Amino acid sequence: MNISDYNSLKNSDEQHFWYKARKVLIDRLLGLYLKEDDGREILNIGAGLGTEAEILKKYGRVTALDKDPETVALSDRSGIRTVLGDIEEVEPEKNKYDCVCCFDILEHLRDDRAALKKIYRALPPGGYLFFTAPAYGFLWSGHDLVTGHKRRYTQGGVKKLLNEAGFEIPLIGYWNSLLLLPVMIYRLAKRAAGLAPKTDARPLPRILNRLLFLVLNLENNFIGQSIPFGLSIYGTARKKI
């Protein structure tokens, strides 16, 4: 969760369905490759305001890196060691981290290629990168502008980036497929109407929020299986041994 979305949702009495379901996605994605409490060093690029902390801490010692001071302060409160810094400006120590998490971060970077090369260097041979990113350029909307996105991706584009950085790709897939059509209609309609840019992350009626969570969480039962389309891309990359 970035700071603009947090500020939109902070007065809500229930966690937004997308963030709640994404936490389940992250847990299941890591669980495919990692054992819990295995003493590994984890770098989480983009602190996520601590929303992922309870999951990541299950798999090792977590250090978060974020360039926003307010985000760093909020993440620190969750018990995660959080460092103020920008992956585009700093160079993580070579071979230091057993895995790196990059959840909805690549789309914010000016140079995603350079960042992935830094991540590759920070991992030991056999180390993992876990990632998510927004899909499809044609879905570009005011939400992307407000939240600081530079681009959206396709699976093929992500594969190319990872291969160029040197990674193997044991898993890549689409997520949030069931909501693709209604979101596409909603965003294209907003674009056609010329509405002012605004984040799509806003408090929802409790019943609707829970219903949407149930719909999206259904897809978490199929993590690791092939779904041909979706609003997000998730995956695992591995540094060659």
UniProtKB/TrEMBL annotation:
Keyword Transmembrane appears in the UniProt entry: yes
Entry's transmembrane regions: 119-139, 171-189
Pfam families: Methyltransf_23
Keywords: Membrane, Transmembrane, Transmembrane helix
Top-level taxonomic group: Bacteria
Official protein name in the record: Methyltransferase type 11 domain-containing protein
